[in-house]
Write a structure and sequence with these properties.
The protein is mainly α. The protein is built from nine helices and no strands. The chain has a single domain, classed as Four Helix Bundle (Hemerythrin (Met), subunit A) (Up-down Bundle). The N terminus and C terminus are likely disordered. Bound molecules: protoporphyrin IX containing FE. Its EC number is 7.2.1.3.
């Protein structure tokens, strides 16, 4: 279905080329080798041109995605460290400061990177199992970062006798984290463990894809509402500080963080929903698409 891979594959680092070579060798001993995506016979010049444009568009989008993600983490760190006094784990505002950094990094940036992993052309034509595992590990890292981020805000609230789970932000945020935990557990059991029936995997895959995008949307909504809430809390205009309505530099920075988070989410969703950029489908005989030790023809 997609044939943009070879340009990117040819420039893949040695490690990945080795993986590709070894999986090709394995295939040649046990089952007929399938043609590498893009190396199928007889593409005309028009096809080649449109494929190259497709690969360029995908690579540019992934680069933008990488840059915006790093910018999100950087802006969140600068906000907490430069404007809010830095980090600590002592029940004070310094402990709270971990919350925006870890939630943004985990539930938006690492989550977004893990979501677009299968779209990286370098991963095509290689064992999908490796990338499935990396996808699952990155998602687990995202989940753990967000759990620590939640611990920071709950501990800060409890030590300062602030009520829990009263705001719309906290409701939306909690829904995002709970759905993410359910999604990770279901994805792990169905796509990585060997005993899940193929029919279940096939049936669950569209739900997994839809829920994945929805969780990203919820996380972004939680970040935007959290940033706004925090700015209203701290920029009240007393104690010689400027009110939010004067747009002091802290507000400029935090508003910009919100915009960059939204832009990152839009680029991730654009990459995910562009059908031309999906990983080329496996051939039925391709063992690379099997879960841990079971053959798989789909997902
Ligand atoms: C995906 C991202 C986020 C999620 C899932 C999330 C989740 C939560 C949850 C569940 C609480 C309630 C804690 C409690 O009741 O003790 C909370 C509190 C809070 N969060 Fe976030 N948060 C996220 C991002 C952010 C960001 C980026 C900020 C920006 C500063 C932020 C600011 C706050 C503030 C000010 C509170 C305390 C007030 C309240 O409970 O609403 N959050 N967050």
């Amino acid at each position: 279905m997609h044939q943009e891979a070879p340009a990117a594959l040819s420039s893949a680092p040695l490690l990945f080329q080795l993986i590709q070579t070894s999986s090709g060798t394995e295939a040649s001993t046990s089952r007929p080798a399938r043609p590498k995506p893009g190396l199928r016979p007889g593409p005309n010049i028009k096809d080649t041109g449109s494929r190259m444009r497709g690969t360029l568009g995908l690579s540019l989008s992934l680069l933008v995605c990488l840059t915006l993600g790093l910018l999100c983490v950087g802006l969140a760190c600068v906000w907490s460290s430069r404007f809010r006094g830095g980090f600590g784990w002592d029940g004070s505002g310094l402990e709270f400061n971990w919350h925006p950094v870890l939630m943004t990094t985990g539930l938006v940036v690492v989550y977004g990177y893990a979501s677009v992993l299968y779209r990286v052309p370098m991963t095509w034509g290689q064992s999908k199992l490796l990338w499935k595992l990396l996808h699952a590990v990155l998602m687990l890292v995202a989940l753990l970062l967000s759990v620590v981020g939640l611990c920071a805000v709950f501990d800060f609230h409890n030590k300062n006798h602030i009520p829990n789970i009263y705001s719309l932000h906290s409701w939306v945020g909690l829904c995002a984290v709970l759905l993410f935990a359910v999604q990770w557990g279901a994805g792990f059991s169905l796509f990585l463990l060997p005993w899940s029936p193929l029919s279940w995997r096939k049936a669950f895959k569209p739900v997994h894809v839809w829920l994945g995008g929805s969780i990203l949307g919820l996380s972004i909504a939680a970040c935007i509402s959290g940033i706004n809430e925090k700015l209203f809390f701290v920029l009240k205009g007393g104690n010689h500080s400027q009110p939010y309505s004067d747009l002091p530099s802290e507000a400029m920075l935090a508003n910009s963080l919100g915009i960059v988070i939204v832009a990152f989410g839009l680029v991730v969703l654009y990459v995910l929903t562009n059908k031309r950029w999906q990983r080329p489908e496996a051939q039925p005989q391709d063992g690379a698409y099997a879960p841990l030790n079971q053959e798989e023809t789909d997902s």
